[in-house]
Amino acid sequence: MSLLKCEGVVLRVRDFGEADRILTILSDTDGKFDAVARGARRPRSRLVGVTQQFSRGNMLLFRGRSLDTLNTFELISSYPSLSLDVAKMAYASYVAELVDRMTGERQRNELLYALVVSTFEALDTGPADLEMVLRAFEIKFMSVSGFRPELSRCVSCGASEDEASWFGPEAGGLLCDRCRSVDAGGTRFSAATRELAKRLLLWDYNKLAVLKASRDSTVELETAFRAYVDQRVGRKLHSLDFISDLKSMERGGR
Length: 254
Ligand SMILES: [Zn+2]
What we know:
By secondary structure, the protein is an alpha+beta fold. The protein folds into 2 domains: 3-77, CATH 2.40.50.140; 81-253, de novo design (two linked rop proteins). It contains 7 helices and 8 strands. The chain has helices at 81-84, 86-102, 110-125, 130-144, 191-202, 215-233, 238-253, and strands at 3-16, 20-27, 31-37, 56-62, 68-77, 166-168, 173-175, 187-188. The radius of gyration is 20 Å and the shape is elongated. The site of zinc ion has 8 residues, from loops.
């Protein structure tokens, strides 16, 4: 039986059998895969505390034909506030679900792994503007997954970015007035929103706190990225309902 040693984060946890858990893991060297943590729901198991959603650790696994078996899990971080703060939990769940949905099995992608770790860190301890972290994650994630949107010219005719004030989710980037009709789902994308999107793509999370975004840009960005992500994911993500419920509760509470 062969062994796999890797670092990984837990994207998803399901109960299995009487006392086991099945984990969906994103690893640094082996991409995404499922593994069984035997006895992990027993109170005295050494895996009970560490095999939680979002946990990051060094793992040793026995490779199986269809499913690997987790032998040890040495915790690096559990990102505690992602489980304690309901808003952070909602956002981290969206990150985990989007990555799980869009990533194929066993496809090594070190940039993706580093992105997920830095996103969990940013949500756990970073700047308070969770929405901005999420927009940054969306565009960074689409880029490391091979769907980097075109933000420097019209994706259809190549006109300069100054002439392109629309974003086409299906076209995959900016569109000018003349080409706007090629994408029925196109939405308004001003120059300020475009510059914001470029910064979100390139900047580290710890620099985002200095960004000042207008209400219009925030809305344009959210609308455009939501459509862009949905276009590629296909089915609706469950975690989006969680986030919208939270938002309507916040509005009701004010
Ligand atoms: Zn054009």
